[in-house]
Design goal:
The protein is of the alpha+beta class and 380 residues long. 22% of the residues lie in helices and 27% in strands. Helix 5 (183-197) packs antiparallel against helix 7 and helix 7 runs antiparallel to helix 8 (290-299). 45% of the residues are buried.
Length: 380
């Protein structure tokens, strides 16, 4: 893959970023609704919130392994004027090269770092700033949303390496939408089918793989967000309706009191989350997240909630058309080739990556890798 590289200079020192105000995580996590209070999960567009996320990388070579070291760190590149605005990234590092690379197909961005041979302690710290807010679409009131370009329509209805749109995916999608008319009705049917027929599997590593055909062929529809939302996207694309996964990171507690749908500490190294969108004529890009409905079922206290529990019902209703703005959007890319690597492409780019002597490290084990991601809200 040919890549376009834009080299940016290192910016503000890490110490200044770390001094940013922190969330009142403990307070947010310690104020659950009373048993008698009605369940509310109703994101609506409102005030913008500003955040800074600091990713600190200290590449730790596996025992007995030595050689050239390089790393790739995702940065927020996704932009949506109504709900997400990236505000740039700066970094400090002892790497000999640090290049901001843009994927030419999806626009996903990553910082590519290389260290001199024999560097004893390869390290980097990148600070990404952004603004976000809640979003919601009233699907009873179509408007005059700008049409998708021909290129975007092709891009977001196409198959990817892990999300085919033919075979078992197409056959399953056709069964789900049989008798349905119009885009909204078809997409809603697929959303409800995914919620009803999948489950969140706590044993799945990270956010899952997102291999949609294998998931359907297995008959065991368990996984995490990158599996379940990819399934939703594939089923929607199989109907010729544009859909996409957006890969990101939870950065703050849920203001609606859902412990399962927020980051409840400042350390968010394992808070990655994939969301999904569909493009509907008259509405534009619409928020959806069936995977988070299944997360509420499994993880919302006291755990293993019934599908008709009030918290599940409220989340299920809201997450077809709305999101809470406590989340960072990195990109909507698939099949990402890491520049300078001879290793396999990534199905998606949501975690820091590194290689030592050409061997890819385990990005799902931040303690061994080693990296730490911290989130702070900028209030001044």
């Amino acid at each position: 893959m040919t890549t376009r590289r834009d080299v940016l200079k290192a910016g503000a020192a890490l110490g200044a970023a770390l001094a940013l105000p922190e969330f009142a995580y403990a307070q947010a996590a310690a104020t659950p609704a009373t048993a008698a209070a009605p369940v509310v999960f109703d994101p609506k567009p409102g005030a913008w919130r500003n955040f800074a996320v600091v990713t600190t990388l200290d590449v730790k070579a596996p025992e007995g392994k030595s050689g050239p070291v390089q790393a790739w760190m995702p940065v927020p590149a996704f932009k949506a004027d109504e709900w997400f605005k990236p505000a740039g990234s700066t970094w400090t590092t002892n790497a000999v090269t640090a290049e901001l690379v843009t994927d030419p197909h999806y626009g996903a961005q990553l910082l590519h770092l290389t260290w001199k041979d024999g560097e004893a302690a390869p390290t980097a710290a990148i600070t990404s700033k952004f603004a976000t807010r809640d979003r919601a679409t009233d699907l009873t009131r179509p408007g005059t949303a700008a049409p998708l370009s021909a290129a975007d329509r092709t891009r977001f209805t196409a198959a990817t390496d892990l999300i085919p749109t033919d075979g078992i995916v197409k056959a399953t999608s056709d069964k789900i939408v049989a008798g349905k008319t119009g885009e909204v009705e078809k997409v809603r049917a697929i959303y409800e089918w995914v919620v009803d027929n999948t489950y969140r599997n706590a044993a799945t590593r990270g956010c899952g793989v997102g291999d949609v055909a294998s998931l359907l062929q297995s008959g065991n529809l368990g996984g995490k967000c990158a599996d379940l939302n990819a399934l939703f996207v594939g089923l929607v694309r199989a109907q010729g309706i544009p859909a996409r996964d957006i890969y990101g990171l939870r950065v703050a507690p849920s203001k609606f009191g859902y412990k399962s749908l927020g980051a409840n500490t400042e350390v968010v190294s394992k808070a990655q989350h994939c969301r999904s969108e569909v493009y509907l004529e008259g509405f534009g890009w619409v928020a959806t997240d069936p995977a988070d409905v299944r997360k509420v079922v499994l993880e919302e206290p006291p755990g293993k909630l019934a599908i008709d529990d009030a918290k599940v019902v409220a989340a299920r209703k809201a997450l077809f058309g709305a999101w809470e703005g406590n989340w960072l959007a990195y990109n909507d890319g698939h099949d990402i080739a890491l520049p300078g690597s001879n290793g396999p492409k990534l199905g998606f780019l949501m975690y820091p990556q590194a290689e030592v002597a050409g061997a890819r490290l385990d990005c799902l084990d931040p303690d061994a890798f080693k990296y730490t991601i911290k989130s702070s809200e900028v209030t001044a």
